[in-house]
Specification:
The protein is an alpha/beta fold and 236 residues long. It has eight helices and eight strands. It has a single domain, classed as 3-Layer(aba) Sandwich (Rossmann fold). Helix 5 links the parallel strand 5 (116-122) and strand 6 (150-160). Helix 1 (2-14) packs across helix 4 (72-88) and helix 3 runs parallel beside helix 4 (72-88). The structure holds S-adenosylmethionine. Catalyzes the formation of N(7)-methylguanine at position 46 (m7G46) in tRNA.
Length: 236
Amino acid sequence: MRLRGRKGIRENLEQQQELVVLNPQVYKGRWAEVFGNDRPIHIELGMGKGQFISGMSVKYPDVNFIGMDMYDELIRRASEKVRAKWDGQGAKEPETVRLALGNIEMIEEFFAPGEVERIYLNFSDPWPKKKHWRRRLTHPRFLDKYRQLLNENGEIHFKTDSRVLFEFSLNAFAAVGLQMNDISLSLHEGRINEAHVMTEYESKFVGQGMPIYRCEVMVGEAAVRRYQERKMEMFE
Ligand SMILES: C[S@@+](CC[C@H](N)C(=O)[O-])C[C@H]1O[C@@H](n2cnc3c(N)ncnc32)[C@H](O)[C@@H]1O
C-alpha cells in the first residue's frame, strides 16, 4: 500500500514539470534559464508544506523563488498551495516559483557560486542533542556552503521558535565573521510589518502565544556595505 502511495506521489510530481524540479543538480548554474529571466533568486531551505514560498511568490513578483525540501509528499502539498495561491490571484501559471526536491547537505551541487541572492531558513529542525548539532542548518559547515552560493547582495533571513537554536545560530554567525541585523527576540510583538509572510510552523506557534526569534545576516559584499551605511539608524 505504502509503496503504491509513494509511486502515485512521484507520478504526480513528474507531471508538474513547469513547477516541480526533481533533479535540481541538472540546473546548477542554469536557474535563470529555468525561469527564463534574470530576476534575483531567493530560496527557502526546508520549505515544508509551502505556505511561506507560495505567499512570498505572489507578494514579490520581481523575485524568482525556489522552495526546497527532501520529501516528495511535502513537495506535492506545496505544489497544491502554490497553485491555489496563484489561482486566487487570477494568474495562469506560477512562473516565478519552483519547488525542488533535494537534500540541503548537497546544496553546493544544486547552485553555482553567486547564483542565489537570499536564503530563507524558517523553523529549521533544532536538533537538540549535541551529537546532532552538525545537522543544524546554521552550523558553520552550512554557513560556508551558503557563502559560496550567495551573490554580492547575498543575505540569510532566519526565523525560529527555538531559543536554543537561535542562540547557537547567533554564535555560529559571529564565529564565521558574519554581520547580523534586525535581531528580534519576539517578532510578533509590535514590530511586524505588512511585508511579513508567515510559515506553517510560525502560524501555529504564534497561535500558541510563543515568541518567534528572527535575524538577518549580511553575507555578500554589497549587502555588508549597505548594512555598514545604515547600521546606526535604529539607535537614532
Ligand atoms: C520544522 S519543518 C519547517 C517547515 C517550514 N519551513 C515552516 O516553517 O513551516 C523543517 C523542514 O525542513 C525539511 N528539512 C530538514 N532537513 C532537510 C534537509 N537536509 N534537506 C531538505 N529538507 C530538509 C524537513 O523535511 C521539514 O519540511
